[in-house]
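Cont'd.
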Amino acid sequence: MKKYKFQLLSLFSTLMLLTSCGNNNGQNKSNGALNSNAAEKVYVAPGEHDEFYAFMSGGYSGNLTVYGLPSGRMFKEIPVFSQFPTSGYGYSEETKPMLETSHGFIPWDDSHHPDISQTNGELDGRWIFINGNNTPRIARISLTSFETEEIIEVPNSAGNHSSSFVTDNTEYVVAGTRFSVPIPQRDMPISEYKGNFKGALSFISVDPEHGHMDIKFQILMPGFNYDLSHPGRGKSHGWFFFTTYNTEEANSLLEVNASQNDKDFIAAINWKKIEDYVNNGGGTKMPAKYAHNLYDEATHTATSTIKKEVLTVNPLDIPGAIYFLPTPKSPHGCDVDPSGQYIIGNGKLSADLTVHSFDKMIAAIESKKFDGEAYGIPILKFEDVLAGTVKSGGLGPLHTEFDGKGNAYTTFFISSEVVKWKLDTWEVIDRKPTYYSVGHIMIPGGNSRKPFGKYAIAMNKITKDRYLPVGPEMEHSAQIYDISGEKMELIYDFPTHGEPHYAAGCPAELLAPKAKKIYRLDENKHPYAVKSPDEAKVVRDGKEVHIYMSTIRSHFTPDNIEGVKVGDKVYFHITNHEQDFDVPHGFAMIGQNSSELLVMPGQTKTSVWEPKQEGVWPFYCTDFCSALHQEMQGYVRVSPANSNVELSWSLGD
Amino acid sequence: MTKTIKLLCVLTLGLLISCGGKEEKQKEKIKIGQKPKTEIKKEEPVSTEIPASKRITLDNKGVGKIKSITLDPTIDNAMAERGAALFKTNCTACHKTNKRFIGPNPTGILERRSPEWVMNMILDPKLMTEEDQCAKDLLVEFNGAAMANQNLTEVQAREILEFFRTL
């Protein structure tokens, strides 16, 4: 009875708590709604399309999600660094090579910073790049098929965080290291980090026609932590800027030991100068081991190649190419305004934003006004390069995007807010709360020379009470602000998948008209493709059995297969003969130690099954393809290993 | 109530088990809708409606962008060959030229359908099954197996039509 009373009491008090929380939320919301017609602004009527695409990194999902703005509707999860049983990515024979690394097959990564390819500093919508943080890799995703086409591993790097940002003409996608490490890797005491570890900054060239990536050079920098980076724009095109922390070079308890210096640096790198240097034979080729994985849309197949060498550059060999800009309090975000004049370093332990001037930096370099050097790299004087300070009153500034109308929007993690401020005058115009603890913010094109300053999306790290509770683990929240007016207006709140760090957005009309609808069957160059149903067959090669199978609504050809034996390795090579938009067929085999496949129209994919027991085992289509989808099925007869059952296959006979 | 359910479950289980059968080559065990032998009378079905596949609708041009086609009296063999190749890759999963399969056999199709109807059916089967009565009836007759749009061009559909003339 006592216990019962206690339970009742706790239930009651919890209810009270919940109710009171609810009320507060309710008030917030109704205030928002009273202020404007927020609902109308985000309402995209059934059948209508959104105005913008938003590509959000999945963080620990390892993937990339595609959303519409302003509706916040999710359209697709694009598998990148993680196996994706939904489509069979990383499970099918064709896509397994995409996840190969120098460490072998890795089913996962932590994806952070998507960036859309650019021409003249403006979004061109050809590809989107994203970094794998944990096992350093850069991926390139096609923005016609919305599929991952290429992944390159980055050697000598660890914690590939200051990545994957593209230069004005997508000459390079740049990848910096968060951890400094011994280069080359070797067995040595951790305590000897200082002065011995190095930080590799990799410039990966992008072929202008195919987008193919190749590490052009790696700069071996002092052993700091290279946190984030941004290319110069317009007038500063040819430079790249990296924030650093842990210039103390601490190897333990960084929480305290990496926050000792009042200022860390922004490293300003004249990559054009280094490019000239390496084009003229400069740099040192160094043995390395890294995977380069390339997906071929014609064969629907990826190949993985291990590369054995990388070109490294010692900063001291190219005087005048690299400078350090002192920046207060462990700067995190590193952002460049659309004109290329301002480089913003957000000291994450500071209340203020530091804005450096590109012109002043050049003037200081030309007049050789140095304040010292670090490992031989000149340090410019803080006052000489400072353009201004934004006194925001917020706490924990992280990232800044721009609206193209002279305004900047900076997120504050600790004080959970977005602050709008004016370039040149540094005055704060507006501030709005986020829910809660915002990381990055994204304005479509907001890190390029041509932002589309209509919406800003705040990506938050903490969700708490924003949605119906679903246990301790929750999706992260995002907020959409209308930034078309003087004041920002919170118009929508939506959950995002994984942990979106950064995002990239662009107008819908840049991508929608060229989005691929089908793969043409007559262009299918897969070696196991079945181009017409009479090519369907089953071939035995020792213990391997290759089933050349085709699908159309709603049957498999063949659908009865006999002569498979226990101990065989059975390859189902499935070609989807549909040539109509949005008619994939799926494939799943009972007891298969793999995922299903989703085969797009005109595509061939391969699934492996190793039958362990004799019997007659069914397979079926997993994608509801037509009214007769449930009839889309078949059987494989599995006989004992020593059986004499001949291979045979049929459909409807 | 629960007892009834339990009973039903047991009965269903029994049914399932008995369906399992012991012999590998058992004949049909499910007999449904069969009248006792004594009642069988030799009567033709009452319905006089001709199935859509046998119906002759040469005046119907169907619904779609093909409004009028004039066929040359002689068959263009090169065109028909191209059509045969297209038919093989795009159509044979469901259509065979020697028998009814998932869909109808195209042999002799031009004795029943107009060339325009055939091309419209190839080019936009969804629109046809929504708006053309014959196509609607065919969909029902062929078990609801909707024809796939293979995204062929008008030229390609015309080539397939020429191939059909050779059958």
